[in-house]
Write a structure and sequence with these properties.
The chain is of the alpha+beta class. 38% of the residues lie in helices and 15% in strands. The protein contains two helices and two strands. It has helices at residues 19-35, 51-60; strands at 42-47, 66-70. Helix 2 links the parallel strand 1 (42-47) and strand 2 (66-70).
Length: 71
């Protein structure tokens, strides 16, 4: 579906970055989030007491976004 929206994804393995490059990347991502240039979809939020519900939501595979457990 992304190819129909003229979208390109670039991925990398952050664990292979040297520490200085990783810090620069983290700073840039933080700045983009603060500026509203990036957004992160949260599908559902669960309490710690309902962690089993969070697992069920992930296992169902029908979510669009992340499942969050509040601590």
């Amino acid at each position: 579906p992304l190819m129909f929206k003229n979208t390109r994804l670039w991925m990398l393995i952050v664990y292979l970055l040297d520490p200085a490059m990783r810090r620069r990347g983290e700073a840039q991502l933080g700045a983009w989030l603060e500026d509203g240039a990036l957004s992160h979809a949260v599908a559902e939020t669960f309490s710690l007491a309902d962690t089993a519900g969070a697992h069920r939501a992930v296992e169902a595979g029908e979510k669009l976004g992340s499942v969050v457990v509040e601590i």
